[in-house]
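job 3f2a | input accepted
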Amino acid sequence: MRLSIVHRTRYEFAEPIAHALQRVRLTPKATQGQEILDWSMELENASAELEYDDHHFNHTSLLAIEPGASEVIVTCRGAVDTQDSAGVIGHHSGHLPLWSFLSQTRLTKPGPQMRALMRELPSVSELKPLEYLHALSGAISEQVRYTKGETDPATSAEDALVAAMGVCQDHAHVFIGIARAAGIPARYVSGYLMMNDRIDQEATHAWAEAHVEGLGWVGFDISNGISPDPRYVRVATGFDYRDAAPLTGISFGGTEELLSVEVAVEQQKTEQ
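job 3f2a | predicted structure (272 res):
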C-alpha cells in the first residue's frame, strides 16, 4: 500500500521568543515492510542546525528557532510504501542490547493498579508469550477507556490505569510496563495510521512492540485491538513517549505557547 502523508505542526507564542531549540523526530524509519519513497521537511521561522540518528536509530533533527519569532511551522510530507507483515518487524538490531528494553521508566513503572491487572491475567508460564501479549492488550483496552483530554504526555501508565481513561499513548505505556514486568522486552512506537473513515486527523498515533522469541519485534495497537497492518507507518521508537515524541524542545524569553497539529494520511493510487 502506498500512503501519502502531510504532517503540519504550528507553534504560536504569546510573545516573541528570544531563543528556542526543538528536537524533531518526524522522518519514518526504513524498516521491514516499509519503504520511504520520498520525504521532506519545510520550516518557517526555524532552521535545521544538526541531523543525526539517535541511540534508537530515530532520524533526529535539531532545529533553531529564529529570535523574535512569534510563530513556527514545521511541515513534513512524503510517500511511503508498506506491506502486511502481521505486525512482525523482525530481529532486534541497533545500538542498545535487547535486555535494556526490560528496564522501567517513570512513565511505564508499574504501581499497585498495574500489578493488580497482572494478577488477573494468566502468567507467562501458562500461556505462550504471543498469547499472553494479546490477552494483555485486550485487558488494557477493557480497563482504560479511550478518552481524549484527560491525560497528557507526562501522565504515567499507573495514573492512566487508575483513572481508567486515556489515549493511545497511555495504552502503550501500560502495555509496555506490564510486559517488561513479565520479563518481555517492550518498546514504544510513534507513527502514522491511515484511518478508514477520514483523511484529516488531529494527532499522530502510538502503539507498542514486544520482543517474542522466534519472531522478533511484534507490534500491538492496544487502542484499536489489532497488530499493525499496511495502514501503519513507523516513525520513531523508544523506551517510552519521551524517546519517540515527534517534537520536544526548550525556549527562553517566551511566554505561553499554543500547539496545533494537522495530519493527513491517505492511500495513493499507483500505476499498474
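job 3f2a | The chain has two domains: 2-82+247-267, 88-244.
job 3f2a | closed
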